[in-house]
User: What shape does this take?
Amino acid sequence: MTTKAAQILVVIPHPDDAEFGAAGTVARWIRKGKEVVYVVCTNGDKGTSDPEMTSARLAKTREKEQRSKMLAEGTDYELTEAFYRFELFR
Assistant: This one.
């Protein structure tokens, strides 16, 4: 009998939220052969104390960081901008 690896969906509001909240768990799942897929709901264009940083540059930086992290983990990377049309409010 062949068992297919479980697919795990990690939904996070901002790029890098999984690293602060679930990095160890995600790493363990990946080591066990699980297929992990991330849904990042915003592009990360907010949240810097650098007055010289533009929203567009920050979003590009966050995307590059997310892509690098996922490639290092061995997870697939696909950017879907449909989620980025929404703002998250406090």
Strands lie at 7-12, 35-40.
